[in-house]
């Protein structure tokens, strides 16, 4: 429509004065009005087009964008060192309340996760998986029980914990350059702003002199959230300083009962719609505001709802009363909860237990390798015999 109006206006403006020479006054005025009307129509059409475009931008959204990372704005190395990670290995929920999609692989593979991600050659991955099976099969009866899987899950979770401790040493050193073993909030704030591209000396001077920090709104919101988290990690008696152990809790709340409670409280706050500090099924499965743009996005939303509904009803809501309390959510998220590890072991076995003997055989784990490792192995049955 805009193109048609533009062409009409271009023709009208070009020929109006030439035609006016041969027309009387009344006809010339009519020609002028038509030209003015065309220009007005063009302006209205352009305004309508912009309005519709903006409206579409506001209300349309891809499915569950909050579950995706911003790939166009990657986090810098400095930020990675000192910012709490969005994802915690071996913890069932992400920091934003989304279900950890890779949880099964994390608690089954432990530190060997990266080897499966980096090496996609099926034969090598199959050998690794057979080796893992022999380790999980503690009593060497060529079958993995729920108790054996529970023991393995606890070992792999501990591996993730130890990896976090090692990474924390480097992160703490980055914010404690003087090596006095303690970091103040102001010292951390300077390092954080420097990682975001601000001049470190300039920020340090402004903070020292209690001057206003001119930062963008998004950075200010992140700072406020980090400050709240910082003081939560400060064990009593509070001294507004974090040592290396407290800094570990700041980055990895799964390492501290107190910080795990804080993480649960933050997730409930974000999902709780009626303010009762509990979660109903409808609150837990509610989607972000907006509309999906195509069938593929709708399918993603439908799968997301089904997955969360199943997790809520079968796992998190322990007493099946339709309400999840903070205590229930905390138990569910505690990676070192042995009861949770046993439940997870039973679930993992049930997925691949084709002969329904409540144990896991090698053939079954190879067939369902994608579930356990994220890597699909081809011709699993034929190659079982080759390996032995």
Description:
This protein has 388 residues and is mainly α. The radius of gyration is 30 Å and the shape is globular. The termini are far apart. Residues 1-23, 47-75 and 378-388 have low confidence and may be disordered. The chain contains 19 helices and 4 strands. A two-stranded antiparallel ribbon has the order 1-2. It has a two-stranded antiparallel sheet with strand order 3-4. Residues 124-159, 163-198, 264-294, 314-339 form the EF-hand domain.
Number of strands: 4
Query: Structural class, please?
Result: mainly alpha
Strand portion: under 5%
| Regions with little confidence, pLDDT below 50 for 5+ residues | 1-23, 47-75, 378-388
Essential attributes:
388 residues; mainly alpha; two-stranded antiparallel ribbon; 19 helices; 2% strand; globular; disordered N terminus; disordered C terminus
């Amino acid at each position: 429509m805009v193109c048609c109006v533009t062409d009409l206006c271009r023709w009208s403006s070009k020929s109006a004065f030439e035609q006016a020479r041969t027309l009387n006054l009344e006809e010339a005025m009519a020609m002028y009005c038509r030209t003015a009307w065309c220009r007005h129509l063009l302006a209205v059409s352009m305004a309508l087009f912009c309005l519709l475009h903006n409206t579409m931008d506001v209300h349309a959204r891809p499915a569950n964008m909050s579950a995706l990372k911003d790939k166009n704005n990657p986090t810098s190395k400095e930020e990675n060192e000192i910012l709490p990670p969005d994802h915690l290995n071996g913890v069932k929920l992400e920091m934003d309340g989304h279900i950890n999609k890779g949880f099964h692989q994390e608690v089954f593979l432990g530190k060997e996760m990266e080897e499966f991600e980096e090496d996609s050659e099926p034969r090598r991955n199959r050998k690794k998986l057979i080796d893992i099976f022999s380790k999980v099969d503690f009593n060497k009866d060529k079958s993995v029980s729920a108790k054996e899987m529970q023991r393995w899950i606890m070992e792999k979770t501990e591996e993730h914990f130890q990896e976090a401790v090692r990474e924390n040493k480097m992160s703490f050193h980055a914010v404690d350059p003087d090596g006095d073993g303690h970091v103040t909030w102001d010292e951390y704030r300077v390092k954080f702003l420097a990682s975001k591209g601000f001049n470190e000396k300039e920020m340090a001077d402004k903070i020292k002199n209690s001057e206003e920090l001119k930062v963008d709104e998004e950075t200010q919101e992140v700072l406020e959230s980090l400050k709240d988290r910082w003081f939560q990690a400060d064990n009593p008696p509070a001294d507004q300083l974090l040592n290396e152990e407290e800094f570990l809790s700041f980055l990895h709340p799964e390492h501290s009962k107190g910080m795990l409670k804080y993480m649960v409280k933050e997730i409930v706050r974000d999902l709780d719609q009626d303010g009762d500090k509990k979660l109903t099924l409808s609150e837990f499965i509610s989607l972000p505001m907006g509309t999906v743009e195509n069938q593929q996005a709708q399918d993603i939303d439908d799968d997301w709802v089904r997955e969360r509904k199943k997790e809520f009803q079968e796992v998190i809501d322990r007493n099946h009363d339709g309400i999840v309390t903070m205590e229930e959510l905390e138990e569910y998220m505690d990676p070192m909860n042995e009861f949770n590890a046993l439940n997870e072991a039973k679930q993992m076995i049930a997925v691949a237990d084709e002969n329904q003997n409540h144990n896991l055989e090698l053939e079954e784990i190879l067939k369902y390798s994608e579930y356990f490792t994220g890597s699909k192995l081809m011709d699993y049955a034929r190659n079982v015999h080759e390996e032995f």
